[in-house]
Amino acid sequence: MIVRAGKGDKDRETLLATQIKEDLSNHIRKAWVLYNEDQKNKVPGVYMPHALERKYANAGKEWHWQWVFASQKLSVDPRSKTIRRHHLHPSNLQRAIKRATKRGSISKRITVHTLRHSFATHLLESGYDIRTVQ
Questions:
Q1: What H or E segment, with its residue span, contains residue 76?
Q2: How far, in Å, CA of 49 to CA of 35, rounded?
């Protein structure tokens, strides 16, 4: 699986746990419904960075450019002042992790970055090469 524009705005190749494959597929089906609703309501597509908007004028309206974790609400794009759908803000994930930590009675502070380090540690413990993990 490839994660586009992740931390540091880098693309990364990673693993996808088979346990979440069905949940992720269900989520993407819901995103598809939202996308089709936006298309029907003539909502402008996603923001296309740099020269991509000029090079591929309609790409922002195509399915494969849409956010996997899109906001449920439309909002004003601060760059163009266009009302469109954006991705979920990272603080949403942090709040979800905080709630899960509290529900699990975990006293240690857990962040999204903690999950990243835990994932790397588990890969190393499973015998992956350090350069591959990097």
A1: strand 70-76
A2: 19
d(CA 50, CA 19): 37
pLDDT range class, residue 32, cuts 50, 70, 90:
very high
Phi, psi angles (nearest 5°) of residue 131: -70, -35
Tell me, what's the pLDDT at 34? Answer: 96
35: nearest Cα among 68, 83, 82:
68
- CA-closest candidate to residue 41, choices 84, 79, 9, 5: 84
Tokens at 103, concatenated? 């529900």
* Polymer length of the chain: 134
* pLDDT average, residue stretch 65-93: 92
Q: What's the CA gap between 66 and 32, in Å, rounded?
A: 9
- Spatial distance between the Cα atoms of 2 and 4, rounded to a whole number of angstroms: 6
Please answer whether residues 40 and 61 qualify as being in contact, where contact means their C-beta atoms are separated by less than 8 angstroms.
Answer: no
